[in-house]
Amino acid sequence: MPSDSRLHALDGLRGLAVFLMMEQHIGIWLWRVPAGGARQHPGLVAFNALGGLAAPLFITLAGVGAALMIARARGPVDRTLVTRGLWLMGFGYALNLMTPHWFGPLSWFVLHLIGLGLATTPLWRRASTPRLLLVAATLVAATTAAHVWLRTPLHLGFSVMNNHARPGGVLRLALVEGHFPALPWLAVFILGLVAGRDVVAGRRGAVARLALILLAVGASLGLLGRALPLRGADIDDPLLRGLWLRLVRVHLDFYPGHLPIVALLAAAALLLVYLGLAPRVRGWLDARSPAVTLGRASLTLLIVHVVLFHEGGRALGLYYGLSATTTLLIIAAWTALCVLGTRAWQRRGYAYGAEWALRRLAG
Predict the structure, then answer these.
(1) Residue 80 belongs to what domain range?
(2) Cα angle 269-271-277, degrees, rounded to a multiple of 5
(3) How far apart are CA 242 and CA 229, in angstroms?
(4) Collapsing DSSP states into helix, strand and coil, what is residue 134?
(5) Are 259 and 247 in contact (CB under 8 A)?
(6) What pTM does this model have?
């Protein structure tokens, strides 16, 4: 059973995830890319790129957290998991309505996916670990098959990911072509559930082994695509061409999520869990640590920063309107404000935030 310090470590990882998400979003939404292109600012581009790990880390940590919740429950837990999952999906749809310039009313984002993961955890928690790994592998394989069958573009734009008017409607977004659809991202949640079992049992090394296996799979497929002379243009059949490219090309934007990049991102998230649970790291963290307070308020910060900087930035004419230096200063100032604010909020138990509301609503 994990100790309190381990819980602080997981909160710290949530804090890292929300920081990465906020810095990426603010950097993308406010920065006016110069005429010469983003390559003139490789540091800012690389900094923003780190934010790509935020959502996979959130999803993985949600799975870990579900496993910890099950292990610590003193009574029936299935109803609580389902209720929390459904309410979190409701929060996701509320965020859709608050950000009409980013999402459609029925868009499927990371909150919806995590909510689905929690709501379906009663289906997974009684399965053995090998069976859970088989389920995760099946979901990823089904992703590739669904993409080929639906002729999903190799790169999805917002006009597709937010469009529920196409055949399949909202189910198509939730299952295959949304921002973070169940195929393949529910597999990452399940991998987090597996890792959470290892955390509960004190098998930290097993988390690292799972991460290294995923790293080997993702890297091998990516290297295979580079090593073989075969390219998409060399395959006449469009279905086979699409299948090949989805299996071996590493698309860093992961819209949609293909096998290589999903495996690499899941590996990175699990490695962070492994490192975050190291005894030395746990010893650095307590309830007042900046990363921990950010993590305890991560759902609130996710919602607030999206509304403030995406919708507010548009209303104030700041969207794509600032220099790289000004954008970085805003990121720094906002991060400092969040750290100071959440540290003060910690004394009041994070009362009236989104996390507090979720606990009150769902138990």
Answers:
(1) 4-362
(2) 105
(3) 16
(4) helix
(5) yes
(6) 0.95
For 277-331, the DSSP string reads TSHHHHHH--TT-HHHHHHHTHHHHHHHHIIIIIIHHHHTT-TT-B-HHHHHHHH
Record the tokens describing residue 212, joined without a space.
Answer: 């290294």
Residues 244 and 205: their CA atoms lie apart, in Å, by 34
Q: At what angle do helices 182-200 and 110-124 cross, to 10 degrees?
A: 60
Distance CA 174, CA 153 (A): 16
The rounded distance, in Å, linking the Cα atoms of 66 and 195 is 10
**pLDDT tens digit string along 305-327?**
999 999 999 999 999 999 999 99
Residue 1 predicted with pLDDT over 60: no
d(CA 192, CA 200): 12
3-state secondary structure of 31: strand
Distance CA 193, CA 65 (A): 8
pLDDT at 234: 61
Q: Tell me the per-residue pLDDT of 241-253, one tens digit each, with 9 for 90 and over.
A: 778 888 888 888 8
| Per-residue model confidence as pLDDT tens digits over 34-60 | 876 667 788 888 899 999 999 999 999
| Cα distances (angstroms) measured from residue 305 to each of 26, 148, 283, 310, 323 | 8, 36, 30, 8, 19
Give the pLDDT of residue 232: 53
- For residue 5, what pLDDT is reported? 44
Total number of domains constituting the chain: 1
Per-residue pLDDT averaged across 201-210, rounded?
97
Residues 192 and 61: beta-carbon distance below 8 Å: yes
DSSP state of 360: H
Distance (Å, whole) CA 316 – CA 307: 13
